[in-house]
Specification:
alpha+beta; Structural Genomics Hypothetical 15.5 Kd Protein In mrcA-pckA Intergenic Region, Chain A; Pseudouridine synthase; 3 domains; 11-stranded mixed beta sheet; 29% strand
Amino acid sequence: MTASPKPQTPAAASGVSTAVVAEDEAGMRIDRWFKRRYPTLALSHLAKICRKGEVRVDGKRVETSTRLEEGQKVRVPPLRIEAPAPAVRPARPGDAQALQAMTLFEDKDVLVLNKPYGLATQGGSGQTRHIDGMLESLAKGDTRPVLVHRLDRDTSGVLLVAKNRRMAAELGEIFRSRQAKKIYWALVEGVPKPAQGRISLYLAKGAGMEKSRGGARELEKMRVAKHGESDAQHSLTYYAIVDKVAPRCAWLSMKPLTGRTHQLRAHAEAIGHPIFGDPKYGHRPDDEVRRRDPLRAMPEGLERKLHLLARRLILPHPKGGVIDVTAPLPDHMEKSWELFGFDVKRPDPIEDAPDA
């Protein structure tokens, strides 16, 4: 077993050196490998030295997306590191207990959490508490749990965590090869036709406006793009109506085969049936809906929170067997299901959707 090295200081990065890929680094992209060893290295600088051929793996030129294998030798050129690495934020009291309360499944290699509504998966602008930071409370020496995928802050449900980087790399490959089966539940405005369908679109980053008490602010959102457009990526989702209250709303089960940013939210808007409570995609004020089409208006008192749940995750366990975990409805969705008389034990037709 190859020991994982500690992050390097600027002095250690001043000359040309050769580093060996450790066992728990196998499968990592080279940009993430550099970021792990040199935390304050600017990715723009890394991209530049890769383009110039200064970074090599076993003597060969590489791109920032190149994936590494255990035992490979990485040529590390002089690096421009501008500031010392920031101190790791210590775990907050109660983080470990909070994660334990979220746990749906655990063994020695993986942890499956039920991420609550409103809690970010990773840090970002204005985010002071998030799952990734909370995982620091479960660290053991140099080994800490690693996120395998992510959910939007306001999406609830199944979130997979690896307990070490080697397991994260193996699970990441399972996700990339589309062996992981993901099922989401959503409450959408109106009733889609047909009742079961396939949404195949190209998505690209765009911009939109979000209304708030302080006025409107610009935010990033995905838009439907054309094949061949810059940064356009293909996205594919199967959906099926589980139950409905026509013409107001429908309970959709959705199965994404690709994992694009905001994919399900953008797809729901694209077919004219946005997810209820979504402030970015297709949101219209309740009073406007009641004025234009009273029959389609949602009942008063319904919580306008994003009604999207990562309901179930099924994938092969790298150590053998299958991981199959289901998350319960979050409180706000449970109240809506009760209001509309939806039965969570009802058969889910998305189970018969193709896996490719």
